[in-house]
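**User:** Once you have settled down, spend some time on the protein underneath, comparing sequence with structure tokens, and judge whether sequence predicts the tokens.
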Amino acid sequence: MGDDTTRQDSPGADPVDARERLSRARSEAVGRLRSLRGDLAGLADAQRDTATDDEHDPEGATLAFERAQADSLARSALAQIAELDAALARVAEGAYGWCEVCGEPIGAARLEARPAARTCIRCAARTGPGRGRRG
């Protein structure tokens, strides 16, 4: 990867543009999380107002499923916010747009598609999902 002080900006990783794009994506994720938390509160209220026997109450099973789905989406939004916060930190450090595995620049198209990407497409394909690193 070389010395960080001699490294040129990554192609496609203009710090101002990256910060704006990441901040926009973070705001959207925070909005989604707020909405999901509202949905979860509404579902919890609805569940309190129905019978507690999910197995025999047709509404109980539906509410339980919807609550589990909303909870899963909320956890996903939290994870996305954490990834975006980490990417914003990399922008501040001057490390944004550089692959954490091979040290090469992450392509502009990949950063456009996945603004919080930590790895180049080649390393992401090599490590793949579920193999330790997220890219």
The chain has two domains: 15-93, 97-135. Residues 15-93 form one domain. The chain is about 60% helix and 0% strand. The helical segments are 15-48, 58-93, 108-113, 121-127.
